[in-house]
Amino acid sequence: MLRAASVAARRTVLTSSKGLPKCAAPRAMAFHSSSPRDEEAKEVDPAPVDKGGLFGTGLSEWFALPIGMTAAVPIIKLEWYVVNEETQLAAVFVAFCVAVYSQAGSAIHDALDERAKTLLKEHNEAEDKVIGALEQKLDFLKANQNMVNDFEAINEIRENSYKQLNAAGAIKPQHDLKAQMERIINMVASEEATVTEKTKQAIMEEATAVVTEQFSTDKALKKAALDNAIAQIKGSAEAGAIDPVSAAFSKFLKGKAEAAAASVDDSEEVAQKAALIAKMSAVAKSEGMFFNFDTSGKPVMNA
């Protein structure tokens, strides 16, 4: 069987070496000098159809097995290819590769694919961070496009504010002086009201003491006051009747007023005035007012 296969292989080689077939000889081509027509320019060679199979012949790929076996016999017989230790080593290596591919190929693929997916994910995350930072920077730059206009508006507002402050500063001292004068006037009015209230209280205490002493020592006054009180309680008091107690208070107050009008001793008033001037001067100094007071109570502007 091997001898028949060898003979068939020799005949095939001899037949292919005799020359090209007649169909392969070049044919004469027509030539003309006229310009090409559009139909000729548009002609396109059809694409070759791939039939698939063994070497594109359409035959099953399993035909490669008997063809390979048939070709291997003369190749080895004629010693075109010598089977030695290199061939054995190559066969072992190929067998190892086939075993690794068939047994562990999927595991290796999955490991490499998982590593590739991890690297791709990390790369995408890094790109997303960079893109986010660039977008944020872009938003910041867009927001700062009107920075010049903003600073110009701020400077304009500042200038207007300074102008308004200067205009207000021209009349502010007048308002401050008015407020300080009102402060002093209110303080003087408060002091006068306090002194008046104290004077009234002292006069009433003195009048009460004097009238009480009169009614305690004078039995006629005491009897008249008692009779008047009983008549008022009974309702039998005559119209226009004078109350002895009220008359005594009125007499005392009238005499006190006449004595004060006739008196030339103003030491008490001078002392009160001096105390008030000292107090006003102290307030003016402590509050940093524009003026002060001399010994006579006249306001003097500070230098």
Q: How would you describe this structure to a colleague?
A:
The protein is mainly α and 303 residues long. It is 72% helix and 2% strand. The chain contains 8 helices and 2 strands. It has a two-stranded antiparallel ribbon. A hairpin with a 5-residue loop joins strand 1 and strand 2. It is rod-shaped and about 180 Å long. The N and C termini lie far apart (142 Å). The N terminus is likely disordered.
- Quaternary state of the chains: single chain
Low-confidence stretches: 1-35
Order of helices and strands: HHHHHHHHEE
In whole angstroms, how far apart are the ends?
Answer: 142 Å
> Strands of the biggest beta sheet: in what spatial order?
1-2
Strand content: under 5%
